[in-house]
Design a protein that fits this description.
With 387 residues, the protein is of the alpha/beta class. It has 15 helices and 8 strands. Strands 1-3-2-4-8-5 form a 6-stranded mixed beta sheet, with helices on both faces. It has a two-stranded antiparallel ribbon with strand order 6-7. Strand 6 (286-287) and strand 7 (293-294) form a beta hairpin. It is globular and about 75 Å long.
Length: 387
């Protein structure tokens, strides 16, 4: 796509415009972003659970009323560990829905393609931006790159950092059950560290979020223009930009509650676009914060074939222990895959850091993502998609 085309100018201008103002989850900025395209943060449930686990762990280490304090630690830390497993696994979110305040979030849904098409392809991005925090400092993922370059080169997934916020309550609970004071102490210390880290994120502002994830919003805008200029026959297309993705895909969960009953999993495919403004375009093989779930192989291979058809080099073999909106569709039984990009750390460029600006984007990679998605859509006839 030529840089001086009106289509390119529109999506590039949209990325720069949206990156210029704050868009934390469930905020007026997020709504403003949604309006210009057509909750609460995750740190609270994680921080609160770990804070309570650390507190009851310290109580259980005391010498007074051991039976009562151990029982309290087992109940609170065990409940917290179960709640985090559900929350980090993008389940029912029963704890946050029961005890935390609610705020509105805004999704943008556009329909194009052939409205009479029997098959539906949905492409999704998100327009909210993450809060930063010291745990996202860009020097941290470069440590294994420098110290253990061979292991880093062979790694097929990112480090499972979210285990650090789950294991604290688990250790406090198990240590209290079996009377292991050292385990309780270690769990309380781990939970206290997680609480501090989550508080740090909650107290900081949101980042510009150009790569994560306005680069993907730009792809949706470009595809809308392409499908307007060259209409697609035989396939219905949904272009969806969600809010509150950075609050663990709450916007996508809301979309699912409203629209999944209308979308037959046997006739629907989904492509998640995530952080496509880095140096190297990739197809993510699977995701999961605590439990890894691979995307259906057929969709991954179809996306790879589309990249080949468009003449775009594509990276393979990486799985992420972060979370995308795709996990909601995957858990609901849809055929879904994620198109993303990484830098030399095998992570999204400038991830959750203030340097995630429009000026830092690799615009050529975004153009490649547009070309891959356009090729994917134009090869998804109803008969092909059902095969």
């Amino acid at each position: 796509m030529a840089d001086d085309s009106s289509q390119a100018g529109n999506w590039r201008a949209a990325i720069r415009e949206l990156a210029a103002f704050a868009r934390p989850s469930a905020s007026d900025g997020e709504r403003r972003a949604a309006d210009s395209i057509a909750a609460r943060g995750y740190w609270w449930p994680i921080g609160l659970v770990n804070g309570f686990a650390a507190a009851v762990g310290l109580l259980a280490l005391g010498r007074r009323r051991r039976t009562q304090t151990r029982a309290l630690a087992i109940a609170i830390a065990g409940t917290g560990a179960a709640a985090l497993w559900d929350d980090l696994g993008h389940g029912r979110r029963w704890l946050r829905r029961a005890v935390l305040p609610h705020r509105p979030t805004w999704n943008v849904v556009a329909e194009t393609g052939d409205p009479a098409g029997e098959h539906t392809v949905m492409l999704m991005a998100h327009h909210d931006a993450a809060h930063t925090g010291l745990i996202f400092h860009p020097i941290l993922p470069r440590i294994p790159l420098k110290l253990t370059p061979r292991l880093h080169a062979a790694a097929g997934r990112s480090a499972p950092l979210m285990y650090a916020v789950w294991l604290g309550p688990v250790m406090v609970c198990l240590g209290s059950i079996f009377g292991r004071r050292r385990m309780v102490g270690a769990g309380a210390a781990l939970a206290a560290g997680a609480t501090v880290a989550m508080a740090d994120i909650g107290l900081r502002g949101s980042v510009p979020g150009a790569n994560d994830n306005l680069s993907a919003v730009g792809v949706l805008i470009a595809l809308a223009a392409a499908l307007r200029d060259r209409p697609l026959e035989g396939v219905r297309v949904l272009l969806v930009s969600t809010g509150s993705e950075e609050s663990f895909a709450e916007g996508m969960q809301a979309f699912g509650r409203r629209h999944f009953p209308e979308l037959d999993p046997d006739r629907t495919e989904m492509i998640c676009l995530e952080c496509v403004g880095g140096p190297t375009l990739i197809i993510v093989e699977g995701e999961g914060m605590l439990r890894m779930r691979d995307y259906p192989i057929a969709v991954r291979e179809a996306l790879a074939e589309a990249a080949d058809g468009a003449g775009i080099p594509i990276g393979r073999g990486l799985r992420t222990t972060a979370a995308t909106d795709a996990i909601i569709a995957l858990r609901a039984g849809y055929r879904v895959a994620t198109l993303a990009s990484v830098d030399e750390t095998k992570l999204p460029m400038n991830y959750h850091w203030p340097t995630d600006t429009a000026d830092a984007l690799h615009w050529t990679t975004i153009e490649q993502a547009i070309a891959v998605c356009d090729e994917f859509l134009r090869t998804r006839t109803a008969s092909d998609a059902q095969a």
